[in-house]
Amino acid sequence: MRLAMGRFSFAVAALAVVFAFDISAASGQVNCNDVVSTKVAMTTDLVCGGNPGFTVNGGGAVDMAGYQLTACAGCTGVALVGQAAQLSNGSIVGSGAGSVGVSLGGSGKHQVAHVTVTGAETGFGGSSGSNKLKNNTAYGASTGFSLTGDKNALGRNHSSGSTFANFIVIGDSNNLTENTSAATTGAASGGIYVSGNANKLNRNVSNGDQAAGSALAVGGNENKLNLNTVSGSAGLGGLLVFGNENKLIKSVAVDNAGVGIGISGNLNKLTSNAAYDNQLSGIDIAGNGNSINASNSSNNVESGINVPSGDANSFKSNVVMHNTLHGIFLFGGVTNSSLSKTVALENVDDDLRDDNANCGSNVWAMSVFRTSEVAGFPSLGCIQ
C-alpha cells in the first residue's frame, strides 16, 4: 500500500511539473506596452496610448478572454512578431489613418482566432506567411483583411462595411475557405481580391458591394475556385478571374450590376457554374484555349455566354435560357472554337449567334435551339 501510494504521489508530482507552465501562465494579466513571450489571459479591458497596444512575441499566446483593447489613434492594437505568436477571444477598437487592429509581422506562422476589430484602417494586416486566421471579424475598416505572403489560411472570417476592400490577399498558395464579405461602401471598393498563383478559394460568399469594384476578383495562374457565391455587386461584376490555367467549379453569380462571371486569359477551365439575373452577360470569356462545360447562364439582361475575342475555346453541355439578348454570342474574330450539346431556348434576340461569315473556323454541333444568326443574318446552317 505504501508503495502504491508512493507511486501515486510521484505521478501527481510529475503531472504538476508538466502542467505548471500552463497553469501559472494563464493567471497573468497583460498590460499596455507589454511584450508577451509566455501564455497569458487578460483579466480586464485596456485603453492603450502606446503603439502598439501590446506585442505578442514568437511562442507567446494571449487569450483576451472576452476583453477589449482600445488603441490610440493611428496605432496598432496588437502586434504579432517573431514566429508562431497567438491571439484569441477578444475585441480591438482602432481609429485613424495608419491604424491596424492586428498586425502579423516577423516570420509568420501566427494564429489569430475569434478576434473582432472595429474602426481600424486595416483590421488584420501583415506581410508574413503561413499564418492562420479563423473566425475573426472586421467592421468598418478601409481594408478588413490585408495579407501579403504565401501559404496563409483564412477560414470563416467576416468583413463588412470596408471603404476599399473587405479582403486583399497577395501571394501564392494561400487558402481562403468559408469567408464572408458584405457591403463595401467606398467609391472604388470591392469584396474579396486575391492576387498570386496556386491559391485556393472554397465556399466563400461575397455580396452587397456598393461601388465600382467586384464581389470576388482573382488574378494569377493555376488558382482553384470552388463553390463560391457572389451576389448584389454594384460594380464591374460578380466573379472576375484574370490569368491562365485557373479552375472555376460550381460557383454561382447572381444579381450583379456587371457581368456575372468574367474570365480573361488562357487555358482556364469552368465547370458546372451558374450565372443568373445579372445586368450584363452571365458569363463573359476572352482568351484562348478556355473550356466552359456544364454551366447554366440564364435570365441575364444581355447574353448568357458572351465571347468577345479568343481562339480555340471549347463550350460543351451548357444551358442558356431566357436571356434578353443572345444565348451564346461569338463576336467577329473569334476563331477555332467548338460548341456542342448546348441547350439554348427562349432567348429574346436569338438563341445562338456567330458574327463570323459562315461561322468562320468555329464548329457548332448537337445544339438544341430555335433561332440563330450568322454574321447578323439568319443562320445559313453552320450553327447546328
Describe this structure in words.
- With 384 residues, this protein is mainly beta.
- It has a domain at 33-160.
- It has one helix and 45 strands.
- It has a 25-stranded parallel sheet that branches. The protein has a 17-stranded mixed sheet, with no helix packed on it.
- β44 and β45 form a beta hairpin.
- The longest helix has 24 residues, at 2-25.
- It starts with a helix and ends in a 6-residue tail after the last strand.
Please provide the count of β strands: 45
State the low-pLDDT regions, or none. Answer: 1-27
Distance between the termini: 92 Å
Helix fraction, binned, reads under 10%
User: By helix and strand content, what is the structural category?
Assistant: mainly beta
Strand content: 35-45%
Largest sheet: 25 strands, parallel
Overall pLDDT score: 91
Radius of gyration: 27 Å
How many helices? 1
The outline comes out as: elongated
Topology:
Layout: H1 2-25, E1 35-36, E2 39-41, E3 46-47, E4 54-56, E5 61-63, E6 68-70, E7 76-80, E8 86-93, E9 100-104, E10 111-118, E11 122-126, E12 132-134, E13 137-139, E14 143-148, E15 153-155, E16 158-160, E17 165-170, E18 175-177, E19 180-182, E20 190-195, E21 200-202, E22 205-207, E23 214-219, E24 224-226, E25 229-231, E26 237-242, E27 247-249, E28 252-254, E29 259-264, E30 269-271, E31 274-276, E32 283-286, E33 291-293, E34 296-298, E35 305-309, E36 314-316, E37 319-321, E38 326-330, E39 338-340, E40 343-345, E41 350-354, E42 363-365, E43 368-369, E44 372-374, E45 377-378
Parallel strand pairs: 1-4, 2-5, 3-6, 4-7, 5-8, 6-8, 7-9, 8-10, 9-11, 10-12, 10-13, 11-14, 12-15, 13-16, 14-17, 15-18, 16-19, 17-20, 18-21, 19-22, 20-23, 21-24, 22-25, 23-26, 24-27, 25-28, 26-29, 27-30, 28-31, 29-32, 30-33, 31-34, 32-35, 33-36, 35-38, 36-39, 37-40, 38-41, 39-42, 40-43, ...
Antiparallel strand pairs: 44-45
